[in-house]
Amino acid sequence: MTMRLLLLIFLPFVLAGCRMAQAKLPPPEKSYKFLIPIPAVMRNHWNMFKPFLLALADRGHKVVTVQIIDAAFTHPNITEVVVPVTLAYTSSRFGMAKNPAESLSSMETFRVSLVSKFYSSPSVMQVYNRRHEFDVVITSHMFNEIAYPFAVGMPLITLAVGGVEPRHSAIMGNVLNPSYVSNEYFDYPRPYSLSDRLHNLYILLSVAGYWRVWGMMPKIQKEVSVYFPELPPLLEIERNISLSLINSHLGNSIPVPLLPSQVEVGPMHCVPGQPLPEDLSSWLDGGGVGGVIYFSLGSVAKGVTMPDKYLRIIIETFSRLKYRVIWKYESKLEGISNNVFIKDWMPQQDILADPRVELFITHGGLLSTQESICHGKPLIALPVFADQPKNAKMIVNRGLGLALEWEELTVELLVDTITEVLTNPKYKRNMEAASRVDRDRPQEPLETAVFWTEYVARHRGAPRLRSPAADLSWMEFLMLDVVAVVHMAVLVVFLVLRRLLSSFYSQLFTWHCKKTKTN
Ligand SMILES: *[C@@H]1O[C@H](CO)[C@@H](O)[C@H](O)[C@H]1NC(C)=O
Ligand SMILES: *[C@@H]1O[C@H](CO)[C@@H](O)[C@H](O)[C@H]1NC(C)=O
Question: Whole-prediction pTM value?
Answer without folding.
Answer: 0.88
